[in-house]
Specification:
Layout (H helix, E strand, L loop, with lengths): L1 H16 L1 H39 L3 E5 L7 E2 L3 H5 L4 E13 L5 E7 L10 E5 L8 E5 H7 L6 E4 L2 E10 L3 H4 L2 E4 H7 L5 E2 L1 E6 L8 H15 L3 E5 H7 L1 H35 L1 H9 L4 H36 L13 H27 L3 H6 L2
Parallel strand pairs: 4-9, 6-8
Antiparallel strand pairs: 1-11, 1-12, 2-10, 3-4, 3-11, 5-8, 6-9, 7-8
Helix pairs in contact: 1-11, 2-8, 2-9, 2-11, 2-12, 9-11, 9-12, 11-12
């Protein structure tokens, strides 16, 4: 018990007597963890919304080009997919992120007028669009943002589209989106005869066969019927589409840079601590402290910085998510809730950052010669 109190006492004494440096170090690791909680949490919420979109529409499989980060398929392949025995409905589609005004950009979907995905929408006014016509339907959040109602005109990519309906969908990705006829989307996207993907609803699984094995079998059948395509379960497609992949990359990249700055701050603090306490460490060694005692002391201080910075970062990051959930530009995607797993990851990263940053200074302190350390002025 005495040894534990000694370690804690020495660690607290060092951190407290250099309060300004400690606070600056905590600021670095706090911002790194806050960035991780807010940005990675936002990107995961974005992925979750895509998964909800597929589930609400009843999509089991998404068929894309093998290179699904830049997928473009011939629309004519839909007939071959539809011929697979397990397939009930096929919906060719295109989606893109388009600037509607200088201030507002939105996801724009191109669907056919008879797409099964339209069945999950509840129309608040108007109704469905018609194939071959410059018509659109708007999610209620986007309609409110643009101040558009049924009967208004919405210019998109130089073409005037008539708003024929305003709907409420089961996900934020629909409520903040534009949906137009597939052929019109092909025109403004210069994708004549091409689609981004085919969404597939399967027939009910045979008695005695699990859903997962049935979907896996259907994927194999689709890929055999249409060589050169990749059939993804809806969950995999939600995690791997272009926009989600980009969101994850930006979130992890930004968080990693912020965390690196925090780790370097802790490493610098611990290195300066060892340098400034050279004589003190020499006295401790002369009094019988082993090298591992010094290692534990330095790592205790570094870990304490990681833990405190992690807790503060979680609080700030959570606040950042709440802010994103309140802003009109991101309210339709961001969620103020954070999963326990995400918080646990943040704390593990904070603690690991502290330990990693303190490893070399701890090793350096443990290998100081007691005689040379006592001579140090």
């Amino acid at each position: 018990m005495a040894a534990q109190l000694s370690f804690a006492g020495f660690a607290w004494k060092n951190l407290w007597r250099r309060r300004l440096r400690t606070l600056l170090t905590l600021g670095g690791i706090t911002m790194g963890i806050a960035a991780f909680v807010a940005l990675v949490g936002f990107s995961r919420a974005f992925e979750h919304e895509w998964l909800r979109l597929y589930k609400n529409a009843g999509t089991d499989i998404a068929v894309v080009e093998t290179n699904f980060l830049n997928t473009s398929l011939s629309q004519s392949l839909g007939a071959r997919i539809r011929a697979v025995p397990e397939v009930e409905r096929v919906s060719p589609m295109i989606f893109n992120l388009i600037d509607l005004t200088p201030e507002v950009n939105s996801l724009v979907y191109g669907w056919q007028a008879n797409s099964y995905e339209l069945d999950s929408l509840t129309f608040l006014s108007g109704g469905r669009f018609h194939d071959g016509q410059p018509e659109v339907i708007l999610g209620n959040l986007l309609a409110e943002d643009l101040k558009k109602t049924t009967g208004d005109t919405l210019p998109i990519q130089g073409t005037a589209f008539k708003v024929v309906g305003v709907f409420h969908g089961g996900t934020a990705l629909e409520n903040g989106a534009v949906i137009m006829p597939l052929d019109q989307m092909q025109v403004i996207s210069s994708m004549d005869g091409k689609v981004t993907a085919f969404h597939v609803r399967l027939r009910p699984a045979p008695p005695g066969e699990s859903y997962d094995s049935y979907v896996k079998h259907a994927e194999t059948e689709v890929e055999s019927a249409v060589p050169g395509v990749h059939a993804d379960p809806a969950a995999d497609r939600a995690a791997n589409n272009q926009l989600v992949t980009l969101a994850h990359s930006v979130a992890w990249g930004t968080s990693s840079i912020a965390l690196l700055i925090g780790v370097l701050g802790i490493a610098n603090t611990m290195a300066m601590s060892v340098f400034e306490r050279t004589r003190e460490i020499g006295i401790l060694r002369a009094l019988g402290w082993k090298g591992w005692h010094v290692i534990v002391l330095i790592l205790t201080e570094a870990t304490a910085l990681g833990v405190i910075g992690g807790l503060a970062g979680i609080a700030i990051g959570w606040g950042g998510l709440r802010l994103l959930a309140a802003l009109p530009q991101t309210a339709s995607i961001a969620s103020a809730s954070v999963s326990p797993m995400h918080l646990a990851e943040a704390m593990l990263i904070a603690i690991a950052s502290g330990v990693a940053a303190g490893t070399y200074p701890a090793w350096r302190g443990a290998h100081l010669s007691p005689v040379e350390a006592l001579r140090y002025e």
